[in-house]
Specification:
The protein is mainly α. The protein is 74% helix and 0% strand. The chain is built from 13 helices and no strands.
């Protein structure tokens, strides 16, 4: 629907909207999914405009991640983590829409972005609400107050600093993978062990490398988009798996392959490089927080 209405350039943005809706209804339930979808719709124009300045971009990332951190007490950040991910994408790389110039302060363009997010996030929630009405979904695992506060601080500080650096130094679409890696790897509570952090980081790197190889072998954007959607279905089978590296290795390629970026070797090198930097920052952030916890 989004491609028919707004062109193929809006497809990647629609993927993030769909992930916000789908993951939250599976991991958090109908109410959480609707809340996340409406939050994304409201934040979409703000995120696009925030990309004009590194300070505002970093501030929007910090606020969104603090909100996600606050939800950790109810065990919701696994699904809600897609929300700051979509916001980061809009800040760094707003969609190209047919018949509407990409202008971060244009009212028609901002309304178009809002429409894209509304369609892509709400339709999956409505459909899955009907399809899963008789299925009992797993209840979120609550986290204690200390773990939730620690997670909120780490994720908001690391992503806001990374966003400021990206917008100030190298504001390219490929730098989004730095934010993707940080948000995917940094976790809360019992999931935030060094071993699991390294597993998520390695899985993200493996997934990025696999996607890079696929892009080189199949330099056709339509075929890549189709492969990415198929791999997304495979990734859903590993939600909740204790093999964290495998889940991340399966979840990363769909996002990469549906990004619509050109298949140049330099693009693939940039993606993997930013992924490695993000993984290293996530491990360092965890190590610092672990040392501080031991001292306290």
């Amino acid at each position: 629907i989004v491609i028919l209405l707004f062109g193929s350039g809006a497809a990647t943005t629609a993927i993030f909207g769909g992930l916000v809706g789908m993951l939250n209804i599976v991991l958090g339930g109908r109410n959480t999914a609707f809340a996340a979808s409406f939050a994304l719709i409201i934040m979409a124009p703000i995120s696009v405009m925030a990309g004009l300045n590194p300070v505002t971009g970093a501030a929007v990332m910090a606020i969104s991640c603090l909100a996600i951190g606050a939800s950790a007490g109810w065990g919701l950040p696994r699904g809600l983590s897609m929300l700051p991910l979509a916001i980061a994408f809009l800040i760094i790389s707003p969609p190209a829409v047919s018949n509407t110039p990409t202008d971060r302060i244009s009212t028609p363009y901002l309304l178009t972005v809002v429409a894209i997010m509304a369609i892509s996030s709400l339709i999956p929630v409505i459909v899955l609400t009907f399809l899963l009405r008789h299925k009992e979904l797993p209840k979120p695992q609550r986290n204690n107050r200390a773990d939730s506060i620690e997670y909120a601080i780490i994720i908001s500080v690391t992503t806001s600093v990374a966003m400021f650096g990206v917008l100030a130094i190298h504001p390219s679409p490929y730098s989004f993978w730095l934010l993707l890696t940080l948000i995917a790897v940094v976790q809360v509570g019992p999931q935030a062990s060094l071993r699991k952090t390294i597993q998520r980081a390695s899985g993200t790197v493996i997934g990025g490398a696999v996607a890079a190889v696929v892009v080189i072998l199949i330099p056709n954007s339509t075929a890549l988009f189709a492969i990415g959607m198929l791999m997304l279905l495979v990734a859903f089978n590993f939600i909740g798996s204790t093999r964290y590296w495998l889940y991340m290795a399966c979840m990363t390629p769909p996002i990469v392959l549906t990004s619509g970026a050109p298949a140049a070797a330099s693009t693939d090198v940039a993606r993997v490089s930013y992924t490695l930097i993000g993984a290293a920052l996530a491990v360092v952030a965890f190590a610092i927080s672990h040392v501080v916890r031991l001292i306290m």
